[in-house]
Design goal:
By secondary structure, the chain is an alpha/beta fold. It contains 18 helices and ten strands. Strands 1-2-4-3-5-6-9-10 form an eight-stranded mixed sheet, sandwiched between helices. α4 links the parallel β3 and β4. The protein is globular, with a radius of gyration of 23 Å.
């Protein structure tokens, strides 16, 4: 998408002399952020952009031409992707929508297998999930194979579109990401309730357990005795569910940008990480005062709590008035601020531009933050959120009893908020932070439980004793290090690696270090040499006036 010149001009002219340098630099960061909008980067998954850049920075390997799949091969579905240097096999399985409800019918679940390039049998099969929930893989097979080419000489790669997404019966409920994310909190809850009503009893079929069982059905059809499970973001929730349900079928696991099944439904680790991330980027860049940045964030949150920014932006292709309040700042810091870090190491991106913009707002100048918010609004996707809402509302831990009636749920949620220590929410108020969570807080308060799905257990009772690698970006505010360490603690033989100067997920860093560690782990079951971590460059940060 092209840069919005009018916006940048207005930003520059509205900026006071005292902060003009910061505003102009923030404007350049906004332009850079806008120029990256064409790269797919949906909520929490973000794998497409990560895999694309990894394919560009990793060394290219060339397979024997005999292994390439011919276009239009007999029995090959028209939607089956082509991956240069690899044979690709595709199929669609017919699966029950809900295992114990034949009256609800079935669903077609599709997958592609990118075959290893060397002659002879495969050494193993890697099953990847890129996150979301709702991210797809089949149509990105070429990017995925490029990113994981370090192991695809002798490993097959299983790419399954989770039920309700992509080639597996896309699930619509007319709630786009743009509409959902920037709606006021009461309207978000209404959108979730409307989606549940539209799905009706079908909502029972869209759970992590169902997708895990689909994945195992694909494994069985392939004749693969075990899988190497590779999960990014939400995939770090899904893959442990698979391991718990099918423990004998797991060879090893790589979990990147991870969180445990029993995560905090009020996302307090993320709130604390926001302040820590600001301190780290200021310390490492020298462009801002670490404690000053946190004070500016606190002042900005307080200001937006009572006087939100009001701006006009194109939201999902339509002009819209956006009210940017404290909860929207919380969402900005929690989700998009640390995505894509390292994709373009020479650019500050959203996170690197925020200290200057927050400082400007704290000193009375709205223009820099308004420019950043407008760019973020105008480049938010329009994908339907049905699968995302169904999985998170069916599965995720909540601060209320999901079997309680709505009035009791609301009472329980209010009690949980009242009992929370405000100090655990960093620079934000309890209300502002929790209402900024698009997959947590009270967003699913009206989601029906009876007639939809059984709650996903938050304890893992059957996980196998296999090697597990957990990678965590030390700037990640979405799945912060505290949560990733809890994820690692779920397993008996886990190794935890903190990747400096990277966000959500660490494979996005441009040196290839993180993906090199993960591919070595897949081959050996051990972490190996991590000295490359010291060469990951710090994030450039727009200087903050002293």
């Amino acid at each position: 998408m092209t840069t919005n010149t009018a916006t940048n001009t207005a930003t520059s002219s509205a900026t006071s002399t005292a902060t003009s340098t910061a505003a102009e630099t923030t404007g350049r960061a906004t332009d850079a952020t806008a120029s990256r909008a064409k790269e797919p980067a949906r909520r929490s998954g973000l794998a497409a952009a990560a895999l694309a850049v990894l394919a560009a920075v990793l060394p290219v390997t060339t397979a024997s031409p005999a292994q390439a799949a011919p276009t239009g091969a007999a029995g090959r579905p028209a939607w089956c992707p082509t991956v240069p240097g690899h044979q690709v096999d595709c199929t669609t399985m017919r699966r029950p929508l809900v295992a114990d409800e034949p009256r609800l019918g079935g669903i077609g679940v599709s997958y592609a297998v990118v075959r290893h390039s060397r002659p002879g049998p495969a050494r193993g099969t890697i099953a990847l999930n890129p996150g979301g929930p709702g991210e797809t893989l089949i149509d990105r097979a070429d990017q995925v194979a490029g990113a994981l080419q370090g192991v695809l000489d002798d490993y097959d790669l299983l790419l399954l579109d989770p039920r309700g997404t992509g080639r597996s019966g896309r699930l619509p409920c007319d709630v786009t990401e743009a509409d959902y994310r920037f709606a006021p909190r009461p309207a978000q809850r209404e959108l979730v309730a409307d989606c549940a009503e539209e799905l009706g009893p079908r909502a029972r079929g869209y759970t992590s357990a169902a997708t895990a069982d689909d994945l195992d059905a694909a494994r069985a059809r392939l004749g693969a005795p075990k899988l190497v499970l590779y999960g990014l973001s939400y995939g770090t929730y899904l893959m442990p569910v698979y391991a718990d349900r099918h423990p004998q079928r797991v060879e090893s696991m790589v979990l990147s940008g991870a969180y445990p099944l029993a995560f905090d439904s009020l996302a307090r680790p993320g709130a604390r990480q926001v302040s820590l991330t600001l301190r780290r980027i200021c310390e490492r860049s020298g462009a801002c005062d670490p404690e000053g940045a946190v004070r500016d964030l606190t002042a900005a949150a307080e200001r937006l709590r009572t006087r939100p920014l009001v701006l006009t932006a194109s939201l999902g292709g339509r002009p819209r008035t956006v009210v940017f309040s404290e909860d929207k700042l919380a969402d900005l810091m929690y989700e998009p601020a640390t995505r894509g870090i390292g994709l373009h190491p020479e650019e500050p991106g959203l996170l690197g531009a925020l200290p200057a913009a927050l400082h400007a707002l704290a000193t009375g100048d709205e223009a820099p933050l308004t420019a950043l918010v407008r760019a973020e609004v105008e480049h938010t996707g329009t994908e339907d959120q049905a699968s995302f809402l169904a999985v998170t509302c069916n599965d995720y831990a909540r601060a209320w009893d999901p079997d309680a009636p709505p009035a009791e749920r609301r009472r329980q949620y209010r009690a949980a908020l009242a009992a929370a220590d405000p100090a655990d929410f960093g620079a934000f108020s309890v209300k502002g932070w929790t209402e900024g969570q698009t997959d947590g807080g009270d967003n699913c308060l009206s989601w029906p439980r009876r007639g939809t799905a059984d709650p996903q257990p938050t304890d893992l009772k059957n996980v196998p004793d296999v090697p597990v690698l957990v990678l965590s970006g030390d700037l990640d505010t979405n799945t912060p290090e505290a949560n990733s360490r809890l994820s690692a603690a779920q397993f008996r033989r886990s190794a935890f690696v903190s990747v400096p100067n990277s966000g959500h997920v660490p494979e996005m860093e441009s040196t290839g270090c993180a993906v090199g560690i993960s591919t070595h782990f897949i081959r050996t079951g051990a972490v190996g040499d991590t000295s490359c971590l010291t060469h990951i460059p710090p994030l450039p940060v727009v200087p903050v006036p002293r």
